[in-house]
Amino acid sequence: MKHEKTVKLCLAAVLTALVFVATYIIQIPMPATGGFINLGDCMVLLSAFLLGPLWGAAAGGIGSMLTDLVAGYGSFAPGTLVIKALMACCAALIYKALRDRTKLAAAVGAVVGELIMVLGYFAYESLFLGFGMGAAASIPGNAIQGLAGMIAGVLVFHVLDAVPYVKKLSY
């Protein structure tokens, strides 16, 4: 029992670092919006599916928030912590509820998680950062980011879930 807790803590730390690296370093330019797509959401979802709602939320939220702080987007850090943690928590709970009934459980959890991300950033930008309805301009870019994260996250999870040791560890 004690060994399992240590492994889960270490895995959470590694996934927190992977969320940070995938968000901060791996950036794919998106000419249509002038922004970029990163693989952070892929790692947030992977954290959720491997660690469950509590540890997955911690890894996804903290790793993403650290990226905002290091990248100079400190005003987004509190919102990112909550949004990404909620995203991971909900994705993990949906995955657990559906995994015995359908092979699409991870995909359904990922869709709901990414919807939370898109709507969460809209709400945060409009209400807390004072952008009002101007925050709606970020919805298409966040939706593209979410789609990329969802596809990559579900694919990577299914590959890792085929490994017996990982399957034993996962939530």
Question: What features would you describe in this structure?
Answer:
- This protein has 171 residues and is mostly helical.
- The chain contains seven helices and two strands.
- The chain has a two-stranded antiparallel sheet.
- Helix 4 (77-98) runs antiparallel to helix 5 and helix 5 runs antiparallel to helix 6.
- The longest helix is centred in the last third of the chain and has 24 residues, at 105-128.
- It is globular and about 45 Å long.
- The two termini are 15 Å apart.
- The relative contact order is 0.15.
- List low-confidence stretches: none
Radius of gyration: 16 Å
Q: Look at the structure and give the mean pLDDT.
A: 93
What is the number of E strands? 2
Secondary structure layout:
Layout: H1 2-24, E1 27-30, E2 35-38, H2 40-51, H3 53-71, H4 77-98, H5 105-128, H6 139-161, H7 164-169
Antiparallel strand pairs: 1-2
Helix pairs in contact: 1-2, 1-3, 2-3, 2-4, 2-6, 3-4, 4-5, 5-6
Q: Which terms would index this structure?
A:
171 residues, two-stranded antiparallel ribbon, globular, mainly alpha
